[in-house]
Specification:
This protein is 38% helix and 12% strand. The chain has 9 helices and 9 strands. Helix 1 crosses helix 8 and helix 3 runs parallel beside helix 4. It is an alpha/beta fold and 297 residues long.
Length: 297
């Protein structure tokens, strides 16, 4: 299962998995658009269903439909995301990037746990990014009730994705569910749809004539790390780690020239922060598949 698996990184991930013989399910906010996009890539056999990660009623309905089929789920790649968007509120006044990128996937994964454990275990991959370096979890004001900043909100959401993998792995490992965070690299996809061209030029992502920086990866190259995390035998018996460039990332070297673009910052893999975020997410959503277990088990 690949959320957002009909554009950008997602469709490349779906193509790789389907090409290897996997039966792939794509939950999509826009099923019609998804169907056309997948068909254009020769992926008409991919199963589609409707899911809006910003609407927990939609997440619950999707999970109920899937569980009703009685099937197991071997791989769940939480790929869908929004980035640096204008301030918006969803659910109970939740900041939209945190709610969509983190809470929606948190609820989806928890609700799908019966399918994930059915055949003895599964892998869950949470798409993070170097955006995590912009902000840890702002427990004093995680919903940005004052002074919204689109990049800090994105950074918090990407830290949340990584921390989710840390705690899910801690709780899920006894049941055979292992979790990984994956940074795909810089890629030009629909994720940038909220960014003005001038902002991307100023950031050095592209030149004035639209030429993309050569440090960016293609969508297929970007999809490699999440696909690797979902399938590689090299990760057997491992979990709760942050991956980049088809490997487990090294800790960020503070103040190094590469500190902003590679490595994982300590705050994004801190087990105590991960446990705290899990509890907070459960309080917000009322959902915790591991409610009988200690947050630090």
């Amino acid at each position: 299962m690949v959320t957002g698996g009909y554009s950008g990184l997602g469709i490349e991930t779906v193509a790789a998995l389907a090409g290897a013989g996997a039966q792939v399910i794509v939950p999509a906010r826009r099923p019609g658009v998804a169907r056309e996009a997948l068909a254009s890539r020769g992926l008409s056999e991919v199963e589609l269903d409707e899911l809006d990660l910003s609407d927990l009623a939609s997440v619950r309905a999707f999970a109920e439909r899937f569980l009703a089929t009685g099937r197991s789920l071997d791989i769940l790649i939480n790929n869908a995301a929004i980035m640096a968007c204008p301030e918006a509120r969803v659910g109970n006044g939740w900041e939209s990037q945190f709610a969509t990128n983190h809470l929606g996937h948190y609820v989806l994964t928890n609700l799908l746990l019966p399918a994930l454990v059915m055949d003895g275990g599964a892998r869950v991959v949470a798409l993070s990014s170097t955006g995590h370096k912009l902000s840890g979890i702002r427990f004093d004001d995680p919903q940005f009730t004052t002074r919204y900043d689109k990049w800090l909100a994105y950074g918090q959401a990407k830290s949340a994705n990584s921390l989710f993998a840390v705690q899910l792995d801690r709780l899920g490992a006894p049941h055979g569910v292992r979790a990984f965070a994956a940074h795909p690299g810089g890629i030009m996809t629909e994720l940038q749809r909220h960014l003005p061209r001038e902002e991307m030029i100023a950031a050095g992502w592209m030149t004035a004539d639209g030429t993309v920086s050569d440090r960016f990866k293609s969508p297929a190259q970007g999809a490699a790390t999440s696909t690797w995390a979902a399938t590689s035998l090299m990760l057997h018996g491992r979990g709760g780690v942050y991956c980049e460039d088809c490997d487990i990332a090294e800790p960020t070297v503070p103040d190094s020239p590469e500190a902003r673009v590679c490595g994982v910052n300590a705050h994004a893999i801190d087990p105590e922060v991960a446990a705290r975020l899990w509890v907070y997410s459960a309080e917000l959503t009322g959902i915790d598949a591991f409610a009988g277990a200690s947050a630090t088990d």
